[in-house]
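Researcher: Let's continue the batch. This sequence belongs to Hydrophobic protein, and it's 56 residues. Same format as the previous ones, please.
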Amino acid sequence: MVPLLLVLLLALLLFGAGFAIKVLWWFAVAVLVIWLLGFVMRSAGTGGSRGRWYRW
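Model: Same format as before. Here are the structure tokens for Hydrophobic protein:
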């Protein structure tokens, strides 16, 4: 009975980790797209340091 519970717990843990990793990948893609859009908008703008949309 205990090994069965351990296997089920491990399967649940791996399923949860897989779902979280997939969500994190989509979040990373969204951040990359926003960063690229900001980079393109900055390049197409007036130029110089005033064209930045972030404060790094």
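Researcher: Any comment?
Model: The first helix runs from residue 2 to 44.
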